[in-house]
Amino acid sequence: MGFNTALSGIKASADFLSTTGNNIANSDTTGFKKSRVEFGDLYNTNVIGAGSSNTIGSGVAVNNIAQEFSAGNISYTDNNLDLAIDGTGFFVLDVGGTQAYTRAGDFKLNEEGYLVTNDGAYVQGYNAVNGIIGGALEDLQVPTERIAPEASTAVELEFNLDSRLDDVPPFIEASFDPGDPDTYTFTQTANTSPAPPATPQAVTLYYAKSDAPNTYQVYATVDGEQNDPTTGLPYLSETYVVFDDADGSFSTTTASGQTPFAPIYVGDGTNVTLGDPAAVTGITVAGLTFDFDGAQPEIATPDNFARPTFDPADPKSYTYSNTNTIYDALGEEHTIGYYFIKQGENNTWEMKVTVDGEINNPVPQPVIDPLTGLQAIDPVTGLPQTQIVPYLPEDTVVRFDNEGNLIGAYTGYEPYTVPSPTQLSITGWDPTDSNAVLEIDLGDSTQYALSSSDTFRQDGYAAGELQGVSFDEDGLLIASYTNQQTAVLGQIALANFDNVDGLTPAGDTAWVASSDSGAANIGRPNTGTFGSIQGGALEESNVDLTEELVALIEAQRNYQANSKTLETENTVTQTIINLR
């Protein structure tokens, strides 16, 4: 009996030693779960009978080699295809038609783009079609096809225009003083031509930029005096002159096509009537009339002081601008420019749009007959009339309230026209589709006392090649392309079991289900009881080397002690044999 007891102890200690050695050997194996030996004592019940209190044990047996499925540390790597499960669950594998499960996420792509393990098992998941994730479990694949281009159809332009910026020329708020050049913008002087013996008088007009677009308040002096000595009143009552700027901002008037900054209105500012420059009401001071009929003296124009004609290449012709990229149907890049010109002091900014540096739509637009509202017909050719127009209609403005919030986009200036709300859009910019419309949304743009800036977003992109793939915490397989686009290609699957201790080891750090574990419950990461996915990381072995080295000493001690039992039993037996 003693021999059998000692031998069972030696065998159990050897199994303990082997299990500990296997743990130590796999201390660096990704996803490895350590094992422990579970012992049970043996009793010989054949002679004395079961339940006897005098029963002598017959040794020890290994009842079970159990694996501990506690989580290992997560170690981050530089490989986007390395995956770790933060929480419960197993990756699902297809090994030659058999479903296996692992915590080792050191995956690779094979030559066909399938996600596989180092030994070629296929990783299971849910593939996506056009970004829609399917519901069938299958081999997870990374398509390597290039992504097709998408034409831009909408732009979201959200900006802040600095309320502190001045109109050009700047509004003069100070009270007029003919001796202070800071109280007016420019002047002109002409002499009267009285009949002898009266002497000529010098009449000077002072133009001070007002708070309205292209509008100047006019003051006058005669021989340096602002008031008529006879009446004691100013030589010139409250008078304003409005100019049609070089861009044709008031092109709906007959001033269109005239010289830059032709005057279109002279009055007291209360009754705005736009007129032909040749019919502009004159400014009469001391019998001398300044008008715009071709004869001197004419109303002076602000050519040397006002903002120059809008030119995308001339920063002096606008207040703020920026450019960004949009894409046509073939994925070719085009540069869209947006420009804002402050108009007066009443929270109004004119807006211009260019594409590839051009302000005009290359596609001819119909000329509308104002009487019929239909396309005009050329009386000579009998053909419908067309014209080249800017991408945005003339006088397109954005307006803000007194708190700096955007009111909307309009066509027309107050008080020269009645502004009408408009939805901003441009056509003709896409050479592959002349009818393509690009909608422009100004979002929650503002006019605050902050430096001008903008945020630009658009929905188009060029064609792109696959650049890389990665996984997010929900296990979504996300592809990135050379055109800065991303696409969801699929989602990895996870499995869990009612009894993970019942899983059967299958080698290569994988397990298969058994009757003890129950069937696999398969689902998606970060849902229910399933853990989340850590991309670019691996789960280390849960082996504690210090603990295993102590166990190694313990196994060695047990082996030696059981060997001593065997040696002692042998000595006693030899003593009996030697009796005479």
TrEMBL record:
Keywords, comma-separated and alphabetical: Bacterial flagellum, Cell projection, Cilium, Flagellum
Annotated Pfam families: Flg_bb_rod, Flg_bbr_C, FlgE_D2, LlgE_F_G_D1
Cited InterPro entries: Falgellar_hook_FlgE_sf, Flag_bb_rod_N, Flagellar_basal_body_rod_CS, Flagellar_FlgE/F/G, Flg_bb/hook_C_dom, FlgE/F/G-like, FlgE_D2, LlgE_F_G-like_D1
SUPFAM superfamilies cross-referenced by the UniProt entry: Flagellar hook protein flgE
Record-annotated membrane-spanning stretches: none
Gene3D superfamilies (alphabetical): Flagellar hook protein FlgE
Domain Flagellar basal-body/hook protein C-terminal: 535-579
Compartments reported by the entry: Bacterial flagellum basal body
Domain Flagellar basal body rod protein N-terminal: 3-33
Keyword field contains Chaperone: no
One GO location term (cellular component): bacterial-type flagellum basal body
NCBIfam families linked: FlgEFG_subfam (TIGR03506)
Name of this chain's protein: Flagellar hook protein FlgE
Source organism: Marinomonas fungiae
